[in-house]
Amino acid sequence: MSSKQTIVTGEHITKSIADSLQYISYYHPTDYIRYLSSAYEREESPAAKNAMAQILVNSRMAAFGRRPICQDTGLVVIFAKIGMSVQIDSAQGLGDLINEGVRQAYLDPYNPLRASVVSDPLSTRRNTKDNSPAIVHVDLVPGNEITFIVAAKGGGSENKARFTTLNPNASVSDWIVETISTLGSGWCPPGLIGVGVGGSAEKAMLMAKEVLNEPIDMFELLARGPASPEEELRIELYQRINALGIGAQGLGGLTTVVDVKVETFPTHAASKPVALIPQCAANRHIKFTLDGTGPAVLTPPDMSDWPDIEYDSTSSTNARRVNLDTLTKEETATWRAGEMLLLSGKLLTGRDAAHKRIVDLINVGQPLPVDLKGRVIYYVGPVQAVRDEIVGPAGPTTSTRMDMFTEKVLAATGLFAMVGKAERGPVAVEAIVKHRAPYMIAIGGAAYLISKSIKSARVIAFEDLGMEAIYEFEVQDLPVTMAVDVEGNSVHKSGPAEWRQRIMGRL
């Protein structure tokens, strides 16, 4: 047994947490960039290739601008492996030290991050204003160091986490593939899938979450071949999931996942707990060690790992320009699923909390604070602007959360169209067809790039909701894809179906 004792100060823990959260807000892990770049080169679907180009260009812009990759800067999740020969020199507990680091990171005046955490999840859901508290998992291990894994998990992918307990002889692979086929694209592929098998319900979920932070190595695994049942399952799932044809942003294509990670643990003879957690295209995480010599030193990545891709939405000869200020129902009726549009003019914003308030006012016959008739609404909660920015990163949020409000809003307001992320559910599609109000998508994972299309921004209603307030944006050539047209045709159905058939034809 080592007699050496390491003293790690509370200040070094707090600073390291704050620095790491800032770091992962604007730097993608380089392994993900290499794998996504390879997928971009191989991709044959024009829509998916365009989506990946936006994600890669956005990533490079965020790295140079040191601004968030995605407007949803995530729920903070910490895995701390504390050596049993370490003494933490602090009057505060570990959770308090970590949460102070979260506060410092999210309130950083040079790169403020979006506060998305709400307290009292059952009723008031009041924003904590600083994104604390973090979710902290602690493990005591031999040694005289503390190893931290710091991750920021977006709501779109977190909401797609799933768990089941299979019969002992049931196929894990079949359940995973069937489940992913039902998740839609709200988790922002192309990303990763974490799988935990065994233990208990909470252990399986914990394994699935933690294993997502392992290095991406699928190409290496395919080259050398599997050396364990877990690696066999990884390869099988990687191939079967990509064969679904879901593709980038659910538009249909060759790559849905760049890797699949699997962790197992002994379990009860009567059980087979299985957890599935997707990781979105933001893929924010970092690992560092504190050994008592100071806070973590985080070295910027080598930007030569980023591909030199030029993206100019206005250069597309197939894109249709749309003037939002002169829009008519007759014009929106001509838009077709899969078509690329460039939006210019005045665009309203509104997401979950704003929609609830709008519907509450409609239900009691009260006037709305903004006239929605003839307008287009964008489901977004932007990051706070800094310096000379008009608005911070402003990518779309998952639209299915607005489905429950769609019929009421369209019927009562005369709203012309909607912009968000991922597919719409049957109730929303029915309302879209009934009211002939089409739905478009912007690319999730391209928030900083999208913000450059916004030329002015002002809050016009529900200012107390913070990032969920209603803004009016003036946009210029904001690139979107028609997702559901007025006839109910959906690119999220036609795209994956086409590419699933193409892929199966090659097997």
UniProtKB/TrEMBL annotation:
Superkingdom: Bacteria
Chemical reaction(s) catalysed: (S)-malate = fumarate + H2O
Enzyme class: lyase
InterPro entries in UniProt: Fe-S_hydro-lyase_TtdA-typ_cat, Fe-S_hydro-lyase_TtdB-typ_cat, Fe-S_hydroAse_TtdB_cat_sf, Fe_dep_fumarate_hydratase
Co-factor(s): [4Fe-4S] cluster
Limits of the Fe-S hydro-lyase tartrate dehydratase alpha-type catalytic domain: 15-288
Entry keyword annotation includes rRNA-binding: no
Biological process, per Gene Ontology: generation of precursor metabolites and energy
Transmembrane helix as UniProt keyword: no
Enzyme Commission number(s) from the entry: 4.2.1.2
Entry's Gene Ontology molecular function annotations: 4 iron, 4 sulfur cluster binding; fumarate hydratase activity; metal ion binding
Entry keywords, A to Z: 4Fe-4S, Iron, Iron-sulfur, Lyase, Metal-binding
Record's function text: Catalyzes the reversible hydration of fumarate to (S)-malate.
NCBIfam families for the chain: ttdA_fumA_fumB (TIGR00722), ttdB_fumA_fumB (TIGR00723)
Oligomeric form and interacting partners: Homodimer.
Protein name per the record: Fumarate hydratase class I
Organism: Sinorhizobium americanum
Species lineage: Bacteria, Pseudomonadati, Pseudomonadota, Alphaproteobacteria, Hyphomicrobiales
